[in-house]
Amino acid sequence: MADWDIRKLHILRTLRERGTVTATAEALRMTPSAVSQQLTNLSRQLGVELLAAQGRGVRLTDAARLVLRHAEAVFEQLERADAELAAYARGEAGEVRVAAFSTAVPALVVPAIRTLRASHPQVTVRVRETEAAEAYDLLAAGEADLALSLAAEAPTATDPRFTRVPLLADPLDVALPPAHPLASAPTLHLTDLAAEPWIFGGSDPWSDITRRACEAAGFTPDQAHSAAGWTAILSMVAAGLGVALIPRMAAPHHEGVTLRELPAAQRPVRHVVAALRRGSEEAPALGRFLGVLRGVVLGAGAGGALRPPSATPGRGPSRR
Questions:
Q1: In Å, what is the CA distance from 66 to each residue of 49, 78, 101?
Q2: pTM (predicted TM-score)
Q3: 161: which DSSP letter?
Q4: Residue 170 and residue 271: Cα distance in Å, rounded?
Q5: What are the start-end ranges of the E strands in the chain?
Q6: Which long-range contacts (CB under 8 A, 24 or more apart) does 153-160 make?
Q7: Exposure winner among 73, 222, 261, 285, fewest CB in 10 A?
Q8: pLDDT tens digits for 5-33?
Q9: What is the pLDDT of residue 316?
Q10: What is the arithmetic mean of pLDDT over 272-293?
């Protein structure tokens, strides 16, 4: 196979455009002897004569024109590669692999992808819904670029492998059946629910938050039912089986319950963080996605998924 040298092909191409060795040398800031030497070497590498004498100058042979015809496709592809690399360097192209817990996917990741597609369609985001332990294993193994989890499930801030980025404090609101006597009460405190049957999971961080919040209010919640998914919990609340504390990120995905915001002093929160491998902060596409994700968080806090429940008691969480 012939030895194709891009730099020397570029010299041959310039000679075709400029017409003389001297003009080629001036255009490429080389000496005429260097141009001649490079073209002689290219001719030897390809095994064909590229130049023929013409008066006091030279002309391209038919073999040289054949070589250049094929080289044009190479130059065109290299131009495309340069353009894509430049876009990548600006964060306008590339791939970002995100591992996130279930609630964060519809509330944060998907809105961020939609926003990014509109402004930077060449950035591809691949999503993997997973629990925190697997998310951080994927991140450490280089199989994910960004992990989203609850702060309680994230590696410590001193872990040398990762950089943690705080995203938001997700408030927990009280979910009540619409017909519950307290659904339309002017105000609601956790102590008002001390005698209620409660619905929460086993040992998940949000379950610990439920217990701690109720104990801080002076009572131990009676766990009437246990479930790990928000859809199941909200369905049981809607059926009148009990009450629950629901993260605001999860609430808009179910009709048929009434959400009530607790007073600030009693309002529990769960903190959501992003994490990336230390040193990867400079990856342009990753930085671009993280910036969009932060924008989604700010927008959600101002009036999106993380806004307070309806100010009108008894109104469902997804009706406005």
A1: 11, 19, 57
A2: 0.68
A3: T
A4: 6
A5: 51-54, 57-60, 93-100, 122-129, 146-150, 162-176, 197-199, 222-225, 244-247, 258-260, 269-277
A6: 153/205, 154/273, 154/275, 155/275, 160/278
A7: 73
A8: 888 998 998 999 889 999 999 989 999 99
A9: 39
A10: 90
Cβ neighbours of residue 304 closer than 8 Å, sequence gap 6 or more: 111, 296
Query: Which pairing describes strands 162-176 and 244-247: parallel, antiparallel, or unpaired?
Result: antiparallel
The stretch 271-295 carries a mean pLDDT of 90
The structure tokens listed for 303 are 């009036």
In the beta sheet, which residues pair with residue 93?
Answer: 122
Number of Cβ within a 10 Å radius of residue 15: 26
Integer Cα distance of 245 and 173 in angstroms: 5
User: Rounded CA gap, 320 and 178, in Å?
Assistant: 16
pLDDT tens-digit readout, 214-260: 999 999 999 999 988 888 899 999 999 999 999 888 876 567 899 99
In the structure encoding, which two tokens stand for residue 176, read together?
């009540």
**168 near 301, Cβ under 8 Å?**
yes
Average pLDDT, the chain: 86
Q: Where are the alpha helices (DSSP H) in 90-187?
A: 104, 110-119, 132-140
- Choose among 117, 57, 55, 64: nearest CA to 92: 117
Cβ within 8 Å of residue 24, ≥6 positions away: 11, 14, 15, 18, 30, 32, 35
3-state secondary structure of 91: coil
**Distance from C-alpha of 286 to C-alpha of 96, rounded to nearest angstrom:** 6
